[in-house]
């Protein structure tokens, strides 16, 4: 028998340039080095079982990435042993039993910094009307109003641009990459470029922080 555990970790520094596949491999190697009683898959190429929440785009930072792994029940598990195998750029922030499925994730909180010559009031006004962009999926592409993907937004001025604190749809049913915000504003005649994107945490229905 096994028990599902969840890890909350950051992704910063050099790790922001890890692809999702690179991240999976790094986590599996860390699990092997830790010496903890993790549960492995079967077959010809057994490896530590682990699944991740919604992937993060290359170049983005995060304070709240999540992955699940399994430990063998009845054996001692030392969380500190696992924490020691992770580099500072993928620092583990918390380890706890996994109780909710990742499919409950509906959104994520982001901090987005944009370089632009326009002030926060102009950016805010742009979101008061339709703000469309061509959104691509694996099977099709269509024009969408990105405002329907943004549940909450606060905009403030910073040196050289603006900072956006927002909750964006992030799930299996509906999802929006923050790069579409940049694209939509440019299409609306507001020149800007993303300078920093940080995912803070995942959310479930009602805006509750997902754990």
Mean pLDDT: 93
Query: Number of helix segments?
Result: 4
Q: Mind telling me the C-alpha Rg? A: 19 Å
CATH topology of the largest domain: Alpha-Beta Plaits
Structural class: alpha+beta
CATH class category name of the largest domain: Alpha Beta
Please report the total strand number as a whole number. Answer: 10
Helix content: 10-25%
Order of helices and strands: EHEEHEEHEEEEHE
C-alpha end-to-end distance: 23 Å
Spans of at least 5 consecutive residues with low confidence: none
Per-chain topology:
Layout: E1 2-11, H1 20-34, E2 50-52, E3 61-72, H2 79-83, E4 92-97, E5 107-116, H3 120-126, E6 132-136, E7 141-145, E8 150-158, E9 161-169, H4 179-187, E10 192-203
Parallel strand pairs: 3-10
Antiparallel strand pairs: 1-3, 1-4, 2-3, 5-9, 5-10, 6-7, 8-9
List keywords for this structure.
alpha+beta, Alpha-Beta Plaits, eight-stranded mixed sheet, two-stranded antiparallel ribbon
Task: Describe the structure in your own words.
- It is built from four helices and ten strands; from the N terminus they run βαββαββαββββαβ.
- The radius of gyration is 19 Å and the shape is elongated.
- It folds into two domains: 2-99, Alpha-Beta Plaits (2-Layer Sandwich), CATH 3.30.70; 107-207, Alpha-Beta Plaits, CATH 3.30.70.3190.
- Strands 1, 2, 3, 4, 5, 8, 9 and 10 form an eight-stranded mixed beta sheet that branches.
- The protein is an alpha+beta fold and 211 residues long.
């Amino acid at each position: 028998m096994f028990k599902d555990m969840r890890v909350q970790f950051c992704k910063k520094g050099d790790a922001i340039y890890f692809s999702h596949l690179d991240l999976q491999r790094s986590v599996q190697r860390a699990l092997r080095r830790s010496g903890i009683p993790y549960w492995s898959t079967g077959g010809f190429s057994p490896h530590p079982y682990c699944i991740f929440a919604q992937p993060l785009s290359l170049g983005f930072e995060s304070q709240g990435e999540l992955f699940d792994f399994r430990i063998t029940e009845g054996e001692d598990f030392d969380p500190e042993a696992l924490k020691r195998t992770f580099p500072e750029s993928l620092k583990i922030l918390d380890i706890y039993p996994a109780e909710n499925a990742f499919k409950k994730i509906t959104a994520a909180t982001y901090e987005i910094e944009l370089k632009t010559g326009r002030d926060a009031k102009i950016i805010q006004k742009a979101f008061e009307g339709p703000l469309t962009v061509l959104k691509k999926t694996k099977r099709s592409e269509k024009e969408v109003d990105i405002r329907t993907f943004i549940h909450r937004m606060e905009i403030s001025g910073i040196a050289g641009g603006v900072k956006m604190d927002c909750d964006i749809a992030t799930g299996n049913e509906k999802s929006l990459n923050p790069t579409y915000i940049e694209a939509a504003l440019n299409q609306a005649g507001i020149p800007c470029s993303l300078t920093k994107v940080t995912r803070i945490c995942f959310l479930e229905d009602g805006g509750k922080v997902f754990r």
